[in-house]
């Protein structure tokens, strides 16, 4: 997909850069795979805000995506490429030879009419899904499982991909887009290719209203608040907020490492940059 540069006919359109979606499906999504999803607006079951700056936004329908790709040895045909409001990547509607329809994350350079398959020894072709042990070194892959049969969890956002750097009998070393090198079970599934919509990172919304439509509320810095509202608040004149930046609840932030999952430390060969 190409980028769309708007003419500067208004102040908000000056500098606006969006994704040109003319090639995508213009009709409604496939209804059996769609369900309504109510926004929590950042509130918990008591109605208290637990995630700030969330709310409003356009009402959206949730498309059920097949991350597991567990329909083995049945050829599927790409019916169309669609926009999904809940993710940065595009999605593809697949019709399998047995008549079943499923949505998958659309890889880059795939189009309507292409055929895909999930199999133990599928062809190394964009959109095909197979175990990591049968994928050659250096191949671009996405939608990678971390546990066998759980479904893809790694490399699912727009334009991302990972690569297999080395193999052993039971494990495969996968280099992720962040630079992290991680051990993954060799029997876990992955899909060949790069995720679609790589220009998503170049979008410039141009105005606050477009950000509100996406479900984001205004952000106010802690240093301009009063002491009762934020640990950084208060002080005479402009202050930087103190030596140790913290969240409103006093938890250290801005670079403080928060990872506590010691069970999977052995799976990380090299931390991200």
Task: Provide keyphrases for this structure.
single chain; 273 residues; mainly beta; OB fold (Dihydrolipoamide Acetyltransferase, E2P); 7-stranded antiparallel beta sheet; 4-stranded antiparallel beta sheet; globular
Walkthrough of the structure:
There is one protein chain. With 273 residues, the chain is mainly beta. It has a single domain, classed as Nucleic acid-binding proteins (OB fold (Dihydrolipoamide Acetyltransferase, E2P), Beta Barrel), CATH 2.40.50. Helices cover 2% and strands 24% of the residues. The strands form five sheets. A seven-stranded antiparallel sheet has the order 9-16-10-13-14-15-17, with no helix packed on it. The chain has a four-stranded antiparallel sheet with strand order 7-6-5-8, with no helix packed on it. The longest helix has 6 residues, at 208-213. It is globular. The chain starts with a strand and ends with a strand.
Provide a quick synopsis of the model.
The protein has 273 residues and is an all-beta fold.
What layout of secondary structure does this protein have?
Blueprint: E1 3-5, E2 17-19, E3 34-36, E4 61-63, E5 76-82, E6 91-96, E7 101-105, E8 115-116, E9 129-131, E10 140-142, E11 144-145, E12 152-154, E13 162-167, E14 171-175, E15 181-185, E16 189-192, H1 208-213, E17 268-270
Antiparallel strand pairs: 1-2, 3-4, 5-6, 5-8, 6-7, 9-16, 10-13, 10-16, 11-12, 13-14, 14-15, 15-17
